[in-house]
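Deliverable D2.4 — example input (structure tokens):
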């Protein structure tokens, strides 16, 4: 396949025009949208408006006049459309870690007599840390983390498990769990289900309502392009909202925050998930970033994600110089999220050498290099050029220079 064939794929791509909605002015090939999405241009305008017209001019009246107070639910519903949640079930706030703490505590309190939180050894560490923190607070008799391999989840669903807490797409390998099936099996044994959608939202079709998932969390700075440290989201299925209560009783989660009642009375809807004052600047960035998805079908995003990653694999495996890169992502594209990961002894140096030559990927311990595919702004030509650089680097041992082995604070 030559560059002309590849350019033809870009010409036939129904999503190709969306790239212009992002700031691509740095001219790098960006295959790290699974860690921090590119900036949509609309974010510049909307945050400038917020600063210059709303905060500066209208000050406190903006909470009503510019509907700042509604942003957590407005943004939540926009995210809901991308993860199969009908309105009133998703809210934007805090970080994944904090949101997990809330829904973990709330679901454990529903499961009297059960203490086990079942998860996978390879889950994202902060997810596991939040359970460990709850154990230190509630005691082992009330919260007990049990870790198994991804393949052993089903056989470990039993009547002493309170909560199944899983991440749909594994951050290291990109392997995707069958959430619909796991939820059905969990419910058969009375287990509640919490799903982390960090590497799913905006990249793969998710059907929370149809799958009858109980709770979900996710972030907005990866495939949703909301900006560094942008506020995360929480999904609470409507059937749970009247009786579920997260334990961080903040005034924004009160049924009537402006009654300033000394006694907490939680909101009966999704707003009970709020704690303190929403970060309006950051949330406005997420709000406008999500507009890029307005007329886009998530299935078209998925189809392009698969085509990009299959092209990457096909081009890479053709080269004799890439034989030492062992793909640790599932070979079946349907069993992956939107990334490919490779185990390779010099992954860290390879990643730094690629960045040096204008291709951004990332590295994860102990020896993995990850390539994320963001169909809204990655082209087939990006993939072709990235693979060409990988092969050129490996062929010339360019990455074996000392300067590429120096570890930075963030990898
Ligand atoms: C990125 C990511 C997080 C990040 O959590 P924050 O608390 O928002 O920093 C958590 N879980 C998973 C699976 C992730 O991929």
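Example output (designed residues):
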């Amino acid at each position: 396949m030559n560059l002309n064939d590849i350019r033809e794929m870009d010409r036939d791509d129904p999503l190709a025009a969306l790239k212009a909605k992002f700031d691509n002015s740095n001219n790098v090939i960006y295959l790290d949208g699974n860690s921090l999405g590119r900036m949509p241009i609309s974010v510049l305008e909307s945050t400038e408006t917020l600063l210059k017209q709303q905060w500066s001019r209208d000050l406190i009246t903006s909470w009503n006049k510019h509907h700042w107070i509604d942003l957590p639910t407005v943004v939540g519903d926009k995210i809901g459309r991308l993860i199969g949640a009908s309105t009133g079930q998703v809210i934007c706030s805090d970080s994944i870690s904090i949101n997990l703490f809330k829904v973990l505590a709330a679901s454990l309190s529903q499961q009297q007599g059960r203490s086990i939180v079942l998860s996978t050894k390879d889950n994202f560490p902060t997810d596991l840390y939040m359970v460990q923190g709850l154990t230190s607070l509630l005691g082992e008799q009330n919260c007990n983390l049990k870790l198994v391999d991804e393949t052993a989840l089903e056989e470990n669903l039993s009547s002493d498990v309170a909560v199944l807490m899983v991440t749909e797409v594994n951050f290291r390998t990109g392997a995707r769990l069958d959430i619909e099936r796991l939820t059905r099996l969990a419910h058969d044994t009375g287990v509640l289900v919490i799903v982390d959608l960090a590497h799913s939202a905006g990249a793969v079709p998710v059907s929370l309502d149809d799958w009858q998932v109980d709770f979900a969390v996710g972030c907005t700075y990866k495939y949703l392009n909301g900006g560094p440290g942008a506020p995360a989201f929480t999904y609470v299925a409507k059937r749970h909202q009247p009786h579920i209560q997260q334990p961080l009783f903040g005034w924004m989660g009160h049924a009537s925050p402006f009654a300033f009642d000394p006694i907490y009375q939680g909101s009966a809807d999704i707003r009970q998930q709020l704690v303190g004052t929403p970060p309006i600047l950051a949330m406005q960035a997420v709000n406008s970033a999500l507009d890029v998805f307005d007329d886009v079908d998530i299935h078209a995003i998925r189809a392009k994600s698969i085509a990009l990653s299959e092209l990457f694999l096909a081009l890479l495996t053709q080269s004799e110089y890439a034989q030492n890169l062992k793909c640790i992502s599932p070979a079946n594209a349907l069993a992956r999220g939107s990334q490919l990961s490779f185990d390779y002894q010099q992954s860290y140096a390879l990643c730094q050498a690629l960045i040096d030559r204008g291709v951004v990927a990332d590295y994860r311990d102990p020896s993995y290099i990850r390539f994320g595919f963001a169909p809204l702004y990655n082209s087939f030509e990006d993939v072709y050029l990235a693979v060409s650089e990988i092969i050129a680097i490996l062929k010339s041992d360019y990455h074996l220079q000392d300067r590429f082995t120096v570890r930075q604070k963030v990898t």
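The CA atoms of residues 352 and 404 lie 5 Å apart.
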